[in-house]
């Protein structure tokens, strides 16, 4: 992924962004040769189109990118990225037509559009690089693009190469890069150190379950991230149908997003004490799989009746959240590809979040548009609490009835918090179902850019 901008002094072709309806005005300032070429091409400035403009010797001397209308741009997150397929390989600088309030988003979209997942195929070596537009924080945008590349790579890697061991290795690589410390509790040690639900969910897999615990920073407010690391989810004994199992390599998307967010926080040098916890497991089928009807006792002491082994993500998160909560962080965030109900509610593009912290909710909503990272607040609706109380145990991991599935899952997780000054849960999809400009089909970062934008206000950085 070309997640860096070209040097500011690099030879670069001028790129003009042309809105629909403004082409004639731009052409008035051009010579007859350029006017004739552009007119003959049929280029109109429509969104997702581009035109190379040749010089007298036939080699490109400039390029035009269709910028559509304001209404069209509102329906596409990265408008400029849609023109990249029509541009020739090379280096460009934006010469005209870019609104200053869109420069950061469009520059980020350009970098994200260059992402390729090449672990199993050579990909293409075509490079279309951009000189960072004037007035943008190029270094920050590069950090965000690199964080997304890490997240996408982790999610896109199949479980054959991204099991709990490989997820641990990825966390160790990140820790080594940024001078963070890391500890991992594995296998039977989870029982010895009181993480019974992480152990129960992962014990049937060939690779042992584990809890990854990374720390970075010595001063500032404490920020704790907890990411669901279910590296593959068969559904357990409540086996998923094949159609639902097809993309379950992405069920560690919460872990991938928290790793990407942690990378960005460390690369930007934010003045926080960062902690990242990832319960890494595979939900597999074997003779020692946990069963429907089992009752598990969590780290916090709350008992949980298992009414569906396919509702395993909340179980591993619960033990990790209880552990994180013991340190009373200033802000604790969990991220997980937790429920299909969230996708029914808001679709694949929005990242729903739950929080009782009004300052964090307001800061997120304010930061998200500028970060090109849409989020949507969902309610911790207290009247639904009885739905997660089965009677035979303290909690039910899969309430019957099918109503409010994302909300009841969030309420379940909230039961394992209470000491943290603020808690927020993100029920993300972490997957792009079809390619869009700046967003290739496959793994996706959802929420971290909005979170990064909100942190300075909430934690007074």
From TrEMBL:
<dbReference type="Pfam" id="PF21337">
    <property type="entry name" value="Peptidase_M17_N_1"/>
</dbReference>
<protein>
    <submittedName>
        <fullName>Cytosol aminopeptidase</fullName>
        <ecNumber>3.4.11.1</ecNumber>
    </submittedName>
</protein>
<dbReference type="InterPro" id="IPR000819">
    <property type="entry name" value="Peptidase_M17_C"/>
</dbReference>
<comment type="similarity">
    <text>Belongs to the peptidase M17 family.</text>
</comment>
<dbReference type="InterPro" id="IPR043472">
    <property type="entry name" value="Macro_dom-like"/>
</dbReference>
<dbReference type="GO" id="GO:0070006">
    <property type="term" value="F:metalloaminopeptidase activity"/>
</dbReference>
<feature type="domain" description="Cytosol aminopeptidase">
    <location>
        <begin position="308"/>
        <end position="315"/>
    </location>
</feature>
<dbReference type="InterPro" id="IPR048816">
    <property type="entry name" value="Peptidase_M17_N_1"/>
</dbReference>
<keyword id="KW-0031">Aminopeptidase</keyword>
<dbReference type="Pfam" id="PF00883">
    <property type="entry name" value="Peptidase_M17"/>
</dbReference>
<dbReference type="GO" id="GO:0005737">
    <property type="term" value="C:cytoplasm"/>
</dbReference>
<dbReference type="GO" id="GO:0006508">
    <property type="term" value="P:proteolysis"/>
</dbReference>
<keyword id="KW-0464">Manganese</keyword>
<dbReference type="InterPro" id="IPR011356">
    <property type="entry name" value="Leucine_aapep/pepB"/>
</dbReference>
<dbReference type="GO" id="GO:0030145">
    <property type="term" value="F:manganese ion binding"/>
</dbReference>
<keyword id="KW-0645">Protease</keyword>
<keyword id="KW-0378">Hydrolase</keyword>
């Amino acid at each position: 992924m070309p997640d860096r901008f070209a040097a500011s002094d690099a030879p670069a072709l001028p790129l003009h962004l042309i809105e629909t309806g403004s082409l004639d005005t731009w052409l008035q300032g051009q010579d007859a040769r350029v006017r004739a070429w552009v007119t003959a091409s049929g280029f109109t400035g429509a969104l997702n189109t581009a035109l190379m403009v040749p010089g007298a010797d036939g080699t490109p001397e400039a390029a035009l990118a269709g910028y559509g209308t304001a209404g069209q741009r509102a329906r596409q997150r990265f408008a400029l990225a849609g023109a990249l397929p029509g541009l020739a390989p090379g280096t460009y600088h934006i010469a005209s037509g870019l609104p200053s309030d869109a420069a950061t988003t469009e520059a980020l979209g350009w970098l994200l559009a260059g992402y390729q997942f090449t672990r199993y195929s050579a990909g293409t070596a075509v490079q279309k690089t951009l000189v960072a537009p004037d007035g943008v924080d190029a270094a920050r945008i590069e950090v965000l693009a690199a964080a997304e590349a890490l997240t996408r790579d982790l999610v896109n890697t199949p479980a054959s190469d991204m099991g709990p061991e490989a997820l641990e290795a990825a966390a160790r690589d990140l820790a080594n890069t940024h001078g963070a410390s890391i500890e991992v509790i594995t296998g039977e040690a989870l029982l010895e150190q009181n993480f019974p639900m992480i152990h129960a969910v992962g014990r049937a897999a060939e690779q042992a379950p584990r809890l990854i615990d990374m720390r970075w920073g010595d001063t500032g407010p404490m920020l704790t991230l907890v990411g669901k690391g279910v590296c593959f989810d068969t559904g357990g004994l409540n086996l998923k149908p094949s159609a639902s199992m097809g993309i379950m390599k992405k069920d560690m998307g919460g872990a991938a997003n928290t790793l990407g967010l942690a990378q960005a926080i460390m690369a930007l040098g934010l003045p926080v004490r960062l902690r990242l916890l990832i319960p890494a497991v595979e939900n597999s089928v074997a003779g020692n799989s946990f069963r429907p009807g089992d009752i598990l006792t969590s780290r916090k002491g709350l008992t949980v009746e298992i009414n569906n082994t396919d509702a395993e993500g909340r179980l591993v998160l619960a033990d990790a959240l209880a552990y994180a909560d013991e340190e009373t962080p200033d802000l604790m965030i969990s991220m997980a590809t937790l429920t299909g109900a969230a996708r029914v509610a808001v679709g694949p593009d929005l990242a729903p979040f739950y929080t009782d912290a009004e300052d964090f909710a307001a800061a997120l909503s304010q930061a998200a548009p500028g970060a090109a990272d849409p989020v949507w607040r969902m309610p911790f609706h207290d009247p639904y609490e009885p739905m997660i109380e089965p009677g035979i145990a303290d909690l039910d991991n899969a309430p019957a009835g099918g109503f409010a599935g994302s909300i009841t899952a969030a309420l379940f997780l909230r039961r394992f918090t209470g000491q943290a000054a603020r808690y927020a849960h993100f029920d993300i999809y972490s997957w792009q179902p079809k390619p869009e400009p700046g967003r290739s089909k496959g793994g996706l970062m959802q929420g971290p850019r909005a979170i990064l934008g909100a942190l300075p206000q909430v934690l007074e950085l």
